[in-house]
Write a structure and sequence with these properties.
The structure holds two protein chains of two kinds. By secondary structure, chain A is α+β, with helices and mostly antiparallel strands. Helices cover 20% and strands 40% of the residues of chain A. Chain A folds into two domains: 76 residues, Dna Ligase, domain 1; 141 residues, OB fold (Dihydrolipoamide Acetyltransferase, E2P) (Beta Barrel), CATH 2.40.50.140. The longest helix of chain B has 27 residues. Classes of the chains: A alpha+beta, B mainly alpha. Chain A: It comes from Gossypium australe.
């Protein structure tokens, strides 16, 4: 997934004298207040930090405010989604109009119908339980549940439903609300699980019937990221390192 | 599924059409889209439907419900700039105006809107928060059965909507928190209307409405705290509630009490029997002594009373759900931050008292330990020099902590005598240690080293010295209430009371500095219990000075402050549990076998009785009066938190 980066930051933090009794706790509290908010200085959302206090003694700043400054060295994990980045998230709600996705457990993204490519069609499937007894029971009581999903026209088993992890493209990112508008238009975007399974089969049998589009996709990925898409599933790759001063 | 649409504006009246859901949704989408092309007709009709709120005919209700549902299906077509009139109509709707299925459809629409685009999130949350309180016309109906029913319907929908939104927007609770805290209604003091409104009736009506709204609002905040969203933001919400209690608390002045001789304040106000107050026709004669002078003050007291009752109920529900320990940690934190540092808080601290009463073994002891820690740690000289802020704050906190501890140990009936004695022992030990460390050392220079931090800034020896005296005084105060328990157990007598004698005879002579009424009471009890053998040192008759005790303290006279003296609020004080948790007088001890031993010792019981009567606090008769009339069982006090004052518990 793109957008994640680790930054080495040199920070100066200003504390009120009333916090002098427990400085380290106050520093953690200050940094904690930055979590899960977009910060312009960092150009991203702070997800985690590891702090190292450099100063053993702090000086009270001259001037009206009797604050004292402390120099810190911090290791920050930042997340800064930008348009055209590929993100991954879990589908939490799906309707004919839209797919709702949660990214990294805290960002909410929406992909509206017009941003879903024509390959996917909205369908509702009546669900019956796989167990026969429950099936019979379901019939008796007339119990049925409808599941909404987007199914691919070209691959019957390629579906997006609630709970699916999908990869999508960022169209825009609202920094204040932390809201992403996503898109499933481009060919790189679909259900991750299906993709992985598909790739496994592909590596085992090297099926010649595989569509050329998929081959292209695989090729792109391997060149772009330098790793197999398998590693995406649960592993966050921190590709970028930058310094913030 | 087909929906019947009895009367859509475009339809002929004598025909009934059946539309499918998707047809209606696409119709609404068309209406929304037509605005972009300049045709506003059908859009205006749509907005018109939203404005239907009162006295709806059944067909109008059906139309409204259908439209809301269709809009929920077409949220992606809504544009924040082109459809602002529709959006503002939706956000102005109040669920309190509608029947359950319309309210359901409205809630569904709000949820869909909130999750459809980040721009609507705050607006939707704000709209839901505004539904915490009913529209003004509904306030009077709240006490009626159908009003209560409606309240239940609306609030359950609002909270369900929050949960749904939070499921799809994980950070929504944080935004909700800000909106809830900012949206809290403020109480209007009567004076604020002074220049604008002349009509007393109107002013009172407004004040009463706002107070009702605040009660419902706080009820909702507590409901949020206990819900799933509370996992994330519960502690902040709870702290905000306590802050609100403190705000109201400080609105009610101490002036009424302080005008009298403050030394009477501790005991004599307790002599009054609430029974008389209940029966008295004049409501402000004694029902609420602190603010009897002004009606606005009275309404604030009433409001505070209601909020405290709500908080108590919430604490009870927390205890039932087994999460009192977690909530208590938040309360404790909040207590340290706000209540402890508030100047002579009068009522807000009873939240802590109540929580402690619900779980004396854990919460009760935790509270006492925290207060003792605060004092003992704070009174240690700090190795590094503190800023001016630190020292003053430290002194005030220390003195408050001792006041709270003394009052708590004295009044909390639910605390086991063993706990009280261990706590007192800790304090006496500290005191003894201090005295030993400074024995014979009357050279002010030595003290200056000890509390140079405070002295340098304030120009006079305040914090440590004052706190020490206050602290001994606190021990005496506790002993006034709990003397008998300690006298009759020899081990305790040797551990606690004998060291205390040394402390009292120390050169700093605390008895000369403490509040006369407490010293007097203490000496009387000490004499009755033949506590101190040599009484020459304690000849204070006529010498019970006021100069010294007045001088020490100055403006921050915390020495007369005992936070857990009886709560003067009507409903809270009539709370069964709270009354039972209180040490009213030494009656329990008297009724125990201790009585016999005193007889054997030949103690002058008349004198002792007199002393005890003087200590009486909350009237016994009130325990029959129910907690706001809500609880039916006469004694709901769980047996495990009954007061334990018998020697067996040691």
């Amino acid at each position: 997934m793109e957008g994640l980066s680790v930054a080495d930051a040199n920070l100066v933090i200003y504390l009120h004298p009333s916090k002098s009794r427990n400085v380290s706790q106050s520093i953690l509290r200050e940094l904690g207040s930055l979590l899960f908010k977009f910060n312009e200085t960092f150009d991203g959302v702070l997800l985690a930090y590891d702090v190292n206090i450099l100063d053993k003694q702090a000086k009270i700043l001259s001037g009206v405010h009797p604050y004292f400054g402390l120099r810190l060295k911090a290791n920050l994990l930042l997340f800064s989604p930008k348009p055209d980045m590929l993100l991954e998230g879990k589908v939490v709600k799906l309707s004919e109009e839209s797919i709702h996705v949660i990214v990294l457990g805290f960002l909410f993204a929406i992909i509206t119908a017009e941003n879903i490519r024509g390959e996917f069609k909205y369908r509702t499937v009546t669900l019956f339980s796989t167990l026969f007894l429950i099936f019979l029971f379901s019939l008796c009581v007339g119990y049925k549940d409808k599941e909404e999903l987007f199914a691919s026209k070209s691959h019957k088993r390629h579906v997006i439903k609630v709970g699916t992890m999908i990869r999508f493209l960022v169209k825009s990112f609202d920094e204040e609300i932390l809201h992403i508008i996503g898109s499933l238009i481009s060919a790189h975007t679909e259900s991750i699980r299906w993709l992985d399974r598909h790739l496994e089969e592909d590596s085992e049998f090297d099926r010649s019937s595989m569509k050329s589009r998929d081959r292209e996709w695989l090729g792109d990925k391997t060149v772009d990221e330098g790793s197999t898409p398998m590693s995406y599933d649960n592993h966050i790759k921190m590709s970028k390192k930058r310094r913030i001063t | 599924m087909g929906l019947e649409l009895p009367k859509y504006p475009e339809m002929e009246e004598d025909q009934v059409f059946n539309f499918t859901d998707s047809e209606i949704v696409s119709h609404v989408k068309q209406a929304l889209a037509s605005v972009l092309s300049g045709d506003n007709n059908s859009y205006n009709q749509l907005v018109g439907v939203m404005h239907h709120s009162k006295h709806l005919a059944p067909d109008e209700v059906a139309l409204l419900e259908t439209t809301l549902k269709a809009l929920a299906g077409a949220v992606s077509s809504i544009d924040i700039t082109h459809h602002d009139s529709l959006l503002s109509a939706i956000f102005c709707m109040s669920m309190w105006n509608y029947r359950p299925h319309v309210a359901d459809a409205l809630a569904e629409l709000i949820v869909s809107l909130a999750i459809s685009n980040g721009k609507y999130l705050d607006l939707c949350l704000g709209m839901l928060v505004s539904n915490f309180t009913p529209p003004p016309y509904f306030l009077d109906k709240l006490k009626m059965p159908h009003g209560l029913e409606r309240k239940g319907q609306v609030l359950s929908r609002v909270h369900a909507a929050f949960k749904k939104i939070a499921d799809y927007v994980p950070l929504a609770p944080l935004r909700l928190l800000t909106i809830v805290l900012q949206g809290m209604p403020t109480i209007y003091h009567k004076d604020r209307f002074g220049g604008v409104l002349k009509c007393n009736f109107l002013i009172n009506y407004i004040i009463r409405s706002v107070a009702l709204a605040i009660v419902i609002y706080v009820e909702n905040m507590l409901k949020l705290e206990s819900g799933e969203i509370g996992e994330l933001v519960g502690s902040t919400i709870l702290m905000a509630v306590v802050d609100r209690l403190i705000e109201l608390d400080v609105e009610i002045g101490w002036d009424a009490i302080l005008q009298d001789d403050f030394s009477k304040g501790i005991f004599e106000m307790e002599l009054e029997d609430v029974d008389d107050i209940e029966e008295s026709a004049e409501p402000d004669v004694g029902e609420f002594r602190l603010s009897r002078k002004s009606l606005a003050g009275n309404s604030i007291a009433e409001l505070l009373d209601n909020l405290l009752v709500l908080t108590f109920e919430h604490l009870e529900s927390c205890e039932r759900e087994g999460r009192l320990a977690k909530v208590f940690e938040t309360l404790l934190q909040s207590f340290q931050v706000t209540v402890l540092s508030a100047y002579k808080s009068k009522f807000a601290q009873f939240v802590m008292f109540y929580a402690c009463a619900l779980d004396p073994e854990n919460c009760g002891m935790r509270f006492a330990t925290m207060l003792a820690d605060l004092f003992v740690q704070d009174s240690q000289p700090q190795p590094t020099s503190q800023g001016p802020h630190g020292s003053i704050e430290q002194g005030i906190l220390m003195m408050s902590a001792v006041s709270y501890l003394a009052s708590y140990l004295s009044r909390a009936k639910f605390l086991a005598a063993s706990s009280i004695s261990s706590m007192l022992k800790r304090l006496v030990d500290w005191c003894l240690e201090y005295c030993e460390a400074h024995d014979g050392d009357i050279n002010p220079n030595a003290h200056r080293v000890f509390y140079s931090g405070c002295q340098a800034i304030l120009g006079k020896p305040v914090s440590i010295d004052k706190a020490l005296a206050l602290f001994r005084f606190a021990i005496m105060y506790v002993l006034c209430f709990r003397m008998k328990v300690f006298v009759d157990v020899p081990r305790l007598k040797s551990e606690l009371l004998i060291p205390l004698e040394q402390v009292l005879k120390h050169k700093l002579n605390p008895l000369k500095v403490c509040l006369p009424s407490v010293v007097e009471e203490f000496l009387r009890q000490a004499k009755a219990a033949s506590l101190f053998t040599v009484c020459k040192t304690f000849i204070f008759d006529g010498l019970l000075e006021s100069e010294l005790s007045r001088a020490f303290g100055g403006l921050e006279r915390l020495d007369t402050f005992f936070p857990f003296d009886p709560c003067l609020l009507k409903k809270c004080d009539s709370d069964d549990d709270l009354v039972q948790d209180f040490v009213n007088e030494n009656e329990d001890i008297m009724n125990d076998e201790f009585g016999k031993s005193f007889d054997e010792q030949g103690v002058d019981m008349d004198e002792f009785d007199y002393a005890l009567k003087k200590m009486s606090i909350t009237p016994k008769a009130t325990s029959n009066y129910k907690f706001g009339g809500r609880f039916q069982e006469p004694a709901r006090m769980p047996s495990r938190i009954r007061p334990s004052t018998s020697p067996e518990s040691l």
